[in-house]
Amino acid sequence: MIENSKIGEAMTIKLSEELPEKKEFEEGIRRAPKRELTLTKREKKMALKNALRYIPQALHEELASEFLNELDTMGRIYGYRYRPAGRIYGKPIDQYKGNCIEGKAIQVMIENNLDFEIALYPYELVTYGETGQVCQNWMQYRLIKRYLERLTDEQTLVVASGHPLGLFKSSKASPRVILTNSLMVGLFDNQKDWHRAVALGVANYGQMTAGGWMYIGPQGIVHGTFNTLLNAGRKQLGIPDDSDLTGHLFISSGLGGMSGAQGKAVKIANGVGIIAEVDHSRIQTRKNQGWIDAIYEEPAEVFKAAEEYRKEEKAVSLAFYGNIIDLLEYAVNENIKIELLSDQTSCHVPYDGGYCPQGLTFSERTEMLRENKEQFKDLVTRSLKKHFSLIRQLVDKGTYFFDYGNSFMKAVFDAGAKAIAKNGKDTSEGFIFPSYVEDIMGPMLFDYGYGPFRWVCLSGRHEDLLKTDRAAMNCINPDRRGQDRDNYIWIRDADSNKLVVGTQARILYQDAEGRKNIALKFNAMVRKGTIGPVMLGRDHHDTGGTDSPFRETANIKDGSNIMADMATHCFAGNSARGMSMVALHNGGGVGIGKAINGGFGLVLDGSERVDTIIQKAIPWDVMGGVARRAWAGNDNAVSTSIDYNVENQATDHITIPYRVDEKIINELL
Ligand SMILES: NC(=O)c1ccc[n+]([C@@H]2O[C@H](COP(=O)([O-])OP(=O)(O)OC[C@H]3O[C@@H](n4cnc5c(N)ncnc54)[C@H](O)[C@@H]3O)[C@@H](O)[C@H]2O)c1
Fold this sequence. Notes:
Elements: H1 4-9, H2 41-52, H3 60-74, H4 101-113, E1 126-128, E2 132-133, H5 138-150, E3 155-160, E4 163-169, E5 177-181, H6 191-200, H7 219-236, E6 249-253, H8 261-268, E7 272-277, H9 280-289, E8 294-296, H10 299-312, E9 316-321, H11 324-333, E10 340-341, H12 362-371, H13 373-396, E11 400-401, H14 408-414, H15 436-444, E12 451-457, H16 462-474, H17 482-493, E13 505-510, H18 512-528, E14 534-538, E15 546-547, H19 565-576, E16 581-586, E17 596-604, H20 608-631, H21 635-647, H22 662-668
Parallel strand pairs: 3-5, 5-16, 6-7, 6-10, 7-9, 8-9, 10-11
Antiparallel strand pairs: 1-2, 3-4, 12-13, 12-14, 14-17, 15-17, 16-17
The structure holds nicotinamide-adenine-dinucleotide.
């Protein structure tokens, strides 16, 4: 066996020989529940070896028992001792060490994802979505930081499920970081094998921007939720295109990482919202932020208050501290009219703590998860079925229910309520309720290329953010399309809506042309010194970034919704065109095996090199998705592609499908 001394000598980037101090856990910071642990004795030994291989030999004896204890009590080895003491947060870029601007910028993004103010379970490196982690453990975090401090603009850091594989020579035109999370070989691409892989320490659930290091706090989803609610209202409640949700009621559940956006979004859309949440600490976080106006504990009281606000046409966001099932049961029994209804509990992992069954408080849920998983599973299954039955009764009375991308309908189906499937048997023909992408976001936004473009002002200065808001607004023509008008209003009011949590970040839905123009404008501003450097990116949940038949590609109807070519091409193409950071994940918002999704980060340093990347990469990042949506036959994507071919004759060309007359086919079959 090769000696450890030789191995240590062969590395200059490594963890220290010194044992870090054991840290206290700060009171009041949310902690992850114990995760499912089904490893055999042999596999547990492997998990320990896997974690200890980051650490110099002299520390193994002491840490082995500590890590075993973490595995037994938390279901994972997080290496808590390796977490730096105190608060971690995204600081101004010039406070970071590094040999290139991208190395420093990416540290800002990682640390923002781990901020106590932002992360769901910061000690367990979970940013949002119950299980979405930056990386698997604190040893990886420390090593990644060291690599980023060393990274030059002619190297690429490769990170596999949180593990920094190493630095490899590349060029100035290459990505500085390539990330993948939980990509599994098809045969093993299922919950059971994935659970084993995570417990062994070889897989990380990246969600989307958690492991893709582009999370910007709940603001990231506020804009999409605002767009969705507004358009749901226009489509279902007869609200005119230039109007909003004034005097209309929206009900949902979840005030967590992403779901926390719902309260804010409904208020920006001028509606009345009631959001149910079982965890009081999360309600309090949103209340402190000003995203929730008042908290109620009785269904009767919250409905009464909502009705008064609705009549007065006052925008308000109310939290119901309790289970969504209790709230809906009351509405059914009392015959209360709910206009718009959704759900944003973490149904991509209902049996791992993402969904709180009726009858349990949040702390009882956490205890039962730890003590009696089987009983917990049984309660979740029963609750999901009841939840479904209540929704059906409401829908029969005129409620518009839509799945909001949390795999709710799939979870109900998996719980045994086959009636939620269109064909009553399997999910091949979809579900009886629309997913928000199928009905709203797909045709109205993604098919045109509108998606969650975002940026972070790396200087940390609010005045930089204000300058970018104004510059972006000036790039939008509000009279071009309805979507542009909504986006114009969004960015015009963004600062007064107080959306920033964590770094100075902004989200703005834009199409390919809009994103490119804004990016070029920002880069020119950096060049002139008007603002400091900017990190540009997007959510994976976008036109071309994600293949997910139950969500982003729910409105792909040519049978290709089970393929993951688009997200893979998007990732490869962004890499080839020199985005600073590229990511590809399995899972995302809907769960392992149900989606492949990717994203990017691009550091605007003011250079002409970056202008060239913007010109090549940004249109590709969006139009690859539009082209695929057009090929599936989606009308708005076809018309967008026709325009694109005309406008970009010299450089680009999209294959567009001929329409087939159904009559010819129907005569044959
Ligand atoms: N539509 C989108 O664009 C989008 C984007 C990101 C995430 N998601 C999905 O949305 C879901 C929520 O994401 P998140 O980041 O907010 O997760 P989260 O786990 O932080 O929040 C979910 C919240 O739901 C609460 N909850 C669970 N069961 C409940 C019940 N029965 N009644 C009331 N409250 C209950 C939990 O206490 C938690 O606070 C995830 O499945 C995620 O994958 C959707």
